[in-house]
């Protein structure tokens, strides 16, 4: 029979610290939100100015935002940003089906 050297009265359970009423907190990752905003801005530029590179960059930002979003995030906002960027790419190629020229080649 072995004697357990641990003392049960000295065991203290870990309790995660709560945020002090701050919205977000210092450890919250804001990159999905920034990419979501950038995706919406670039998709609107791609739609309004008919810039294909803006539409592709919007799709890239939306994919990053979707991939790094948390399960607790609002799925409607991420999906609407993704659909807006896809529609920007589709509409820019429907209006002008020629290949994309890089912005520095003009």
From TrEMBL:
This is Protein Asterix. The keyword Phosphoprotein does not apply. The keyword Repeat does not apply. GO terms for biological process: protein insertion into ER membrane. It comes from the Eukaryota. It is found in: Membrane. PANTHER family: CGI-140, PAT COMPLEX SUBUNIT ASTERIX. Keywords: Membrane, Transmembrane, Transmembrane helix. Belongs to the Asterix family. GO terms for cellular component: endoplasmic reticulum membrane. The chain crosses the membrane at residues 37-66. GO terms for molecular function: protein folding chaperone.
């Amino acid at each position: 029979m072995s004697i357990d050297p641990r003392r049960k009265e000295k065991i203290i359970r870990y309790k995660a610290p709560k945020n002090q009423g701050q919205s977000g907190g210092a450890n919250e990752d804001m990159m999905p939100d920034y990419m979501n905003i950038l995706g919406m801005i670039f998709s609107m530029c791609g739609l309004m100015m008919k810039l294909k590179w803006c539409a592709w960059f919007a799709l890239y930002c939306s994919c990053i935002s979707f991939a790094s979003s948390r399960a607790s995030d609002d799925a409607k906002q991420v999906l609407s940003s993704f659909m807006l960027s896809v529609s920007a790419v589709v509409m820019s190629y429907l209006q002008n089906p020629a290949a994309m020229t890089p912005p520095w080649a003009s």
